[in-house]
Amino acid sequence: MGDLAKIFKAYDVRGVVPDELDEQTAEAVGAAFVEVTGARSAVVAHDMRESSVPLSAAFVRGARSRGADVVHAGLGSTDLLYYASGSLGLPGVMFTASHNPARYNGMKMCRAGAVPIGGDSGLAEIRDRAAELVGSTAPPTGSLIEKDLLQGYADHLRTLVDLSGVRPLKVVADAGNGMGGHTVPAVFAGLPIELVPLYFELDGSFPNHEANPLEPANLLDLQRAVRETGADIGLAFDGDADRCWVIDERGESVSPSAVTALVAVRELGKYPGATIIHNLITSAGVPEIVREHGGAPVRTRVGHSFIKAEMARTGAVFGGEHSAHYYFRDFWYADSGMLAAMHVLAALGEQDRPLSELIGAYARYHASGEINSTVADQDAALQRVRREFGPRGTVDELDGLTVTGSGWWFNLRASNTEPLLRLNAEAADESKMTAIRDEVLAMVRGVSV
């Protein structure tokens, strides 16, 4: 039996297999999921990890034992599961541990219409009920239907972003042996795209590199391939392919903030005056550009639950995060790295400039990126920085400590799970950004400046 208290997180379930998450636990979670949500039917999909097939099968047994009919979509990306939940009108569960190492697995759960289930919206109740049900089995009374949804998913995305008329593009895509290897060929089939695949073989042991594009080391192969093949763009997907990182034709990383601004402008062209969500550590250029194009920017805390809740509250058409998660009202308010990539491809292919020139209009400031520091007493460090920097600018505490000065800002916030403080700094001038970054880090880490 797994340790439910340990594997149920704020937004999903995740743990080491089989020590923390095993089939008995998955079966109990399946039964609890049906009881807590009241689902009469549900849809399930899984990634390419070796443990995903037996764990998802166990979950299905548990769900069917409580009378629920289950549509099993088999292999899929997380955004394919969201498509299934939205298009079928069913609650859903995706078996994946995203970018985590091979020994991990987990579950992302949603209600019908891809509405997320988190700690304060049913996940805690599912955990508690599953703990009561572990070890108890009952025969399945609900039906099981196996349904391949890949083509429907690909067709749906192509209705949201039309790439049929773009100029021919050479695209290198690095799936990291994750689910992008399954979904990218289906989405790009028949389009004017010459696809150069990297690590499309589905392999949950991740033999080439971790499927985590936020780590620069995991982008090196893609950057090299873009330069060597003369490609127009590179795309890197994480393990469950719900995040996408963009590389320009020079092999340089494109900031997710610049992608957020680009997609926001495109969505505002479709929905004039609409609301756009951005979290508080995206570039200051994002709200500026949104306003310049007639939109209404709304700032949120870091975390997908805050983004999705604020999108639903405001009716926002799009939301973007620094972590390369992108959310779309037209996609049931859910995130899809593939859909964001298609917007970038459309913007690139509708004009003749290279990506580096196109994206330059959306990258206005110099950013530090997120820098982590191990700190035993997070509160003391935060107060130290607040006392020093508070008089220099405007302070807000929406999420951690944000100080905004003339032409610069930084945010310092604590990790929810580790003894870490995370710093993001930005300025119009690179030397100013560097100076602010280094001064804050020195205070956080207790070294003299």
Automatic annotation (TrEMBL):
Keywords, alphabetical: Isomerase, Magnesium, Metal-binding, Phosphoprotein
Keyword Phosphoprotein: yes
A family per Pfam: PGM_PMM_II
Signal peptide (from-to): none
Domain Alpha-D-phosphohexomutase C-terminal, chain residue ranges per copy: 370-441
Cited InterPro entries: A-D-PHexomutase_a/b/a-I (IPR005844), A-D-PHexomutase_a/b/a-II (IPR005845), A-D-PHexomutase_a/b/a-III (IPR005846), A-D-PHexomutase_C (IPR005843)
CDD domains according to UniProt: PMM_PGM
Protein name: Phosphomannomutase/phosphoglucomutase
Organism: Nonomuraea guangzhouensis
Domain Alpha-D-phosphohexomutase alpha/beta/alpha: 6-130, 152-251, 261-365
Required cofactor names: Mg(2+)
